[in-house]
Amino acid sequence: MKDNKMPRVHQKLNSDALFFQLKDQDQKQQEKAVKREDFRCDCQGRYCDGFPAGINPTLVDKIDELEKILKKKVQIISGVRCEKRNAEADGSNHSFHLLGRAADIRCEPMSVDELAAVAEAVGLLVIRDYRDDVVHCQWND
Fold first, then answer.
1. pTM of the full predicted structure?
2. Percent helix, strand, coil in the chain (nearest 5)?
3. Any idea where the domains of the chain sit in the sequence?
4. Residue of 141, 129, 62 lying closest to 99 (CA atoms)
5. 141 residues of the chain, pLDDT tens digit each
6. CATH number belonging to domain 16-138
7. CB of 57 closer than 8 Å to CB of 64
8. Shortest CA distance to 140 belongs to which of 103, 87, 96, 81?
9. What's the angle, vertex CA 115, arms to CA 114 and CA 116, rounded to 5?
């Protein structure tokens, strides 16, 4: 019969460096989870749960990079869209909003051209939408 009072044997499974690396990674993911809400479909729950597609993480990273350069928060006017909301917004049938790979953004008081230039500098593909005063940004890779 085994003695239930045997001491616990501790093994070193992880390095301290790995612990802090994962802690930092998890904190960044939590920050992105908050940021994720900015990309919610703007149908306001009429047609979908807000996330009919996943959001491309590189698109989020590029917009984060854009905000760091501008030292300002970028307003996401339209992120991921469901098909019905995309039709209402007069989006194309193959809009990258449907894939979670596009966002229409604004950053007051910048002009469409100024914002588009910085978005292009961080590697985003852009369309200047002067009608709605936004910059459509998308990530294709």
1. 0.76
2. 40, 15, 45
3. 16-138
4. 141
5. 455 665 544 445 556 776 677 567 656 655 565 568 899 999 999 999 999 988 888 999 999 999 999 999 999 999 999 999 999 999 888 899 999 999 999 999 999 999 999 999 999 999 999 988 999 999 888
6. 3.30.1380.10
7. no
8. 96
9. 95
